[in-house]
Amino acid sequence: MEQYVIKPWDTRDDGQPAPVDWDMQVPPEVDAIAELVMKEYEMSVSSKTLITSKPDKGGAIWRIETDKGPRSLKVLHRTPERSLYSVGLQEYVVRQGARVPALIPARDGKLFVEKGGKLWIVTDWIALTQATKVDLAGAQELCFGLGEFHRHSKGYVPPQGAKNSSRLYRWPNYYQKIAKKIGWMREMAKAYGETTASNSILSVVDKYERQALDALERLKASAYPRMVQMGEPHWGVVHQDYGWSNGQNGPGGLWVIDLDGVAYDLPFRDLRKLITSTMDDMGVWDLTWMRGMIEAYHRANPLDRESFEVLLIDLAAPNEFYKHLKEMFYDPVTFLNTEAEAILQRILSTDQTKDQALAELAKDISQYQPGDYTQAAVPATTVRQAPASASDQANWQLASPNPAAKGESKPVDVEPGKLIRLPEKESKPVRTAVAAKKPPDVVLFPNPELPFAETTTSASRQSERLKPIVATVKKAGSKPVKKKAASTGSVKTASKTGKKTVLNKSSVAKKASAKLPAGKALKKTGKSNEKAKTGTQLAKRSSSPRGTQHAAVKHPYKKAAAPSRKLTSNQAKKPRAVKAKKTGRSMR
């Protein structure tokens, strides 16, 4: 049993349909490991009930009845190094006074048990109820609790051996990515011009692309470069998946649960996501709701003028358009013929009130005090969190160090006048205590006379900006071999271990003339477990397009849109995750 490594269990190895509904069950090997984990704690378990399962990721939560009262048993689906980052954060914020379930130590004193290649945690079972969605008061409760959580997370430094997770320095890359992929949407709509939604998309894609570029230009002119120089611990972490399921009312106020995906970032990114999703659900950008939500957050975790300005920039970006329409990259024919038109019309209807509401909201900036970012608060060297005693340090040590573990992100070096590129992942191990370097000075295009700083740009130059970035795949023991670009404008890079091809728009336009057959209709698997959300700590299921069925269709932006093996109704290709693994990029 000790040799069994937990992996996603939604499909069988031979690609055949899964024999059971894994949304309601776990493999017997995982259940057996759960029994072994419970024996590692000072408690007697009388019953165990599966509350929710993540078969596509390899995670699950049980409610267990013990002689110490009801408790929660959870297997974290990420790698042990990445999970150690979130486990350390959970312990840290509890000590700061946050309403977060406290981790119960095992017999050996550790706050986790490592079995099956995953970390397991146990907490007391907290009786929780969702905040109301029907009025502003419920949204304000949610925002106030979010602000409290962010305030308590400030100063966190992960334990030694944890894999760092940070989005703090990636805002420019995020806007760059949105602008580039919205440009791809234009070419996709042209390539599949006979589909239902192609004309509607072509009529608005220029506007949304301009919104992303405007957000990037406003960001580089804001205080963002000085803000990120304050360093990761200064800002604390974001939840990244915060909403009515992961923020619920309980004893003493609002509790924040399911901290698996926390990462360093400007904290109000969580607030922006909550506001934009709420406006999308309401079908209108309501100024009263936005002001009320921001004010509630501000009471718990005060915003300064610079933070409010960057929040406005993030609200103005085409986040919902990009989030909902990017599904076309996974099965363009089916999506453009079925769902895209209705989704687009709903977004356009909602956005009719967006510009005016944000213009009125911007007038509130004078209510916030200026922040002090003249001195970077980052020390010359920052070491991992060091426990006071050797025994405490042993309580955070993982069982078997993995030399392949890597840090998730690092500060971005920005060269003036050029496109921002995602940094490559570090190749050094992270289990040893290595002093982190001070983030470099972030200078975003300081010369206003450089071409990219122009507010008005020709169509040819704008197209040139948004060419896909070619990233050579670097692997140990292999040297990249660059091949001369073909006359069509395609760029190829190759190595001894594999090839990666990225086509620019001119090449795509020529290939788009060959129409491809439509794929089968999407069959999405259920991702939510609504019955278990009330009064329980749940791991929120993803509704990402990565969870959809891929049709056997090739399109201009992917060498092969169809997977290499047969797919089933509950099995999905995850091209964004695969791309991140190949290129070393961390995708949002």
Can you give a write-up of this model?
Helix content is 34%, strand content 11%. Strands 1-2-3-5-4 form a 5-stranded antiparallel sheet, sandwiched between helices. Strands 6-8-9 form a 3-stranded antiparallel sheet, with helices on one face. Strands 11-12-13 form a 3-stranded antiparallel sheet, with no helix packed on it. The model is unreliable at 379-383, 403-437 and 442-588 (pLDDT under 50). It has 588 residues and is an alpha+beta fold. The chain has 18 helices and 13 strands. A hairpin with an 8-residue loop joins strand 11 (481-482) and strand 12. The chain has helices spanning 28-38, 80-95, 136-153, 171-191, 198-220, 224-228, 232-235, 268-282, 287-300, 305-316, 319-325, 332-338, 340-351, 354-362, 390-394, 459-465, 505-511, 575-583, and strands at residues 45-54, 59-66, 69-76, 113-115, 118-124, 129-130, 237-238, 247-250, 253-256, 263-264, 481-482, 491-495, 498-502. Helix 3 (136-153) runs parallel beside helix 9 (287-300) and helix 11 runs antiparallel to helix 13.
